[in-house]
Amino acid sequence: MKQVFDYLDYRDMLKDAYEEGKASDSILSYRTLAARLGTDASYLFRVLHKEQHLPARCVPKALEFLALGGRSAEYFQMLLAYGRTRGKVQKQEILDKAFGLRDVERRRMTEKELDFFRNWWVAGVRCLLEITGGNVKAQDLAQRFQPAVSTDEVRKALDLLLELGMVKRVSSDRLLPAETHVVAGGDEKVLAVRTFQAQVLDLAKQSLERYPPDMRDVSTLTLALDADAFRDIREMLRECRRQIQKRVEGATRPDRVLELSMAFFPIVPPVDG
Question: By residue range, what is the domain housing residue 93?
């Protein structure tokens, strides 16, 4: 089982503890654990498979089962609050507080990498430097963004990109993108990228009203298909992304920064079995 502060979903923590306990105690089952936590076996099954959340009344018993106290118990409860909260701003505030409970060394390894994904304009600032020839005047850069980004936000983005080595200083007043790519390992990367993608999808929705059709390309398809076609289309989208990346590398005089979002997801998922 991983360390408590390595988890980003409290249900993974519970499930790992259950499986580890069952391996050493054949009496442990969904039924016995559910009774111990104060719920029923079917509901506990749905919790451990991320279909439901643990009721508040079960939290003290869950902490007892996991042998958590102090900072570890607070971290577990923060993850529970994060999972149950719907608002994006509130979720991020809870997550920031949860990360603040981690050991200093743990935060030092991941916080800056995660900051890269926290706000969509950070990646945009990096791309914009290519267009401006490396101009580092935050006010000038901020005025180029739609939707609006503040001068202070751009300044912080430049500082972050420098710290991550994603831009390099070529003179006192010029920064250009470096070849370095941000890396955040494990569950943190999954969660950080998911947050970034949600922001970009919101921007895609806003673009329908913000720009005329000749400045954007938004299209949708609703499809009925089988598992083989689904796998084939996913591979076609991957190949499309690879081809787009190759084409972008050949753009010698960029004059704009765009986000490309490909959303391919079920609205009627397949029936199990």
Answer: 4-101
Residue 268 zone, left/alpha/beta (φ > 0; ψ -120 to 50; rest): beta
Calpha distance 180→254 (Å, rounded): 20
pLDDT given at position 104: 56
For tokens 């993974």, what's the residue?
12
The pLDDT assigned to 78 comes to: 94
C-alpha–C-alpha distance, residues 176 and 133, integer Å: 7
If residue 241 lies in a helix (H) or strand (E), which one and from where to where? helix 227-249
CA–CA separation, 65 vs 170, rounded Å?
Answer: 56
Give the pLDDT of residue 68. Answer: 94
Distance between CA atoms of residues 203 and 208, nearest Å: 9
Task: Evaluate whether 135 touches 141 at the Cβ level (below 8 Å).
Answer: yes
What is the reported pLDDT for 110?
64
Indicate whether 250 belongs to any domain.
no
What's the DSSP call for residue 247? H
Whether pTM > 0.70 for this model: the answer is no
* 48 lies in some domain: yes
206 assigned to some structural domain: no
Can you list the pairs that 239-248 forms with residues at least 24 positions away whose Cβ atoms lie under 8 Å? none
DSSP state of 214: G
* CA angle 156–190–81, rounded 5-degree value: 85
d(Cα 12, Cα 10) in Å, to the nearest integer? 5
Q: List average pLDDT for each run of 10 residues in the chain, which is 273 residues long.
A: 86 94 87 94 93 94 94 94 89 86 60 83 92 90 92 95 89 84 67 85 90 88 90 91 87 90 75 61
